[in-house]
Amino acid sequence: MNDLTAFASRLLKAGYTVLAMDLPAHGASAGQYSSIPQSARALREALGPLYAVIAHSMGAAILTEALYAGLAVQRAVLISAPLTMKVMHAALPQSPGWMPRAQK
Question: % helix / strand / coil in the chain, to the nearest 5?
Fold first, then answer.
């Protein structure tokens, strides 16, 4: 269970359909490595027009890329989105599981 579960249960009770997904190399999805463009492409390919999307942290960066590339969404909620990729890049070495070679 993650932090976004509270949103999902309330949206379901309100009659919305909820889809929670792990993008490539995240959660239960296959793969060891991914990138924002690769994940944004997977998001666009997996989903059609949407009413709303809620995204957190790196997911917010991925959603921003997908929206820029044409993902059709009427409403988007970005929670704790990185201010810039420079800020995100600087914070990653403190993240659990960080691999220094990915910084290059």
Answer: 45, 15, 45
